[in-house]
């Protein structure tokens, strides 16, 4: 019964979409069969396809967790840039993006000090666009350069892990877009000689993109 209802609903939705598409297509032609440029109320929808890059600024926080049990809460600001490429198919926007930022991420807990000089990621993005706006999800690999000092035993490592997040982006004009996004990164464990440590971070970032 549920399957039958689902099939009926799917068929009805398909028929509705086809009828809407037929109506839109009809609007593109005049009575004489000639092509007419579609008209828009206000600005035309943005075209997200192509290369883009720009600067970003944000706040980052999390913890660096040695296996000694003395987890260190860290936070700071980040400043960097991003670059990527979008493909658009109707309202669907997909592509890849890379970013890199220097950070002031640091903290101290129970005689253990932790900090990070830079962070970065390589991610895929999948978004839904309407008018001049887009919401998107993103996931990929994240990187964090961490330095941990535990009672004089200090070492530096680059942690690698998974990053996921979401954001919203809007085209300001044909060339520039503004965005805000949140990313969570969980980094794998690294050997610091006398101990091992893993890390995680949360980041809220704002950016300005230039579209070529």
Gist?
Helices cover 12% and strands 66% of the residues. It has 212 residues and is mostly beta strands.
Name of the CATH class of the largest domain? Mainly Beta
Strand content: over 45%
Question: Helical content, roughly?
Answer: 10-25%
Strands of the widest sheet, in order across it, are 1-2-3-5-6-7-8-9
- Here the CATH topology of the largest domain equals Porin
**Overall pLDDT, averaged?**
83
C-alpha end-to-end distance = 52 Å
Shape: elongated
Count of alpha and pi helical runs: 1
| Category by helix and strand content | mainly beta
Question: Strand count, sense and closure of the main sheet?
Answer: 8 strands, antiparallel, barrel
Order of SSEs: HEEEEEEEEE
Number of strands: 9
- Judging by the overall fold, what is the CATH architecture of the largest domain? Beta Barrel
Q: How many individual domains?
A: 2
Low-confidence stretches: 1-31, 35-42
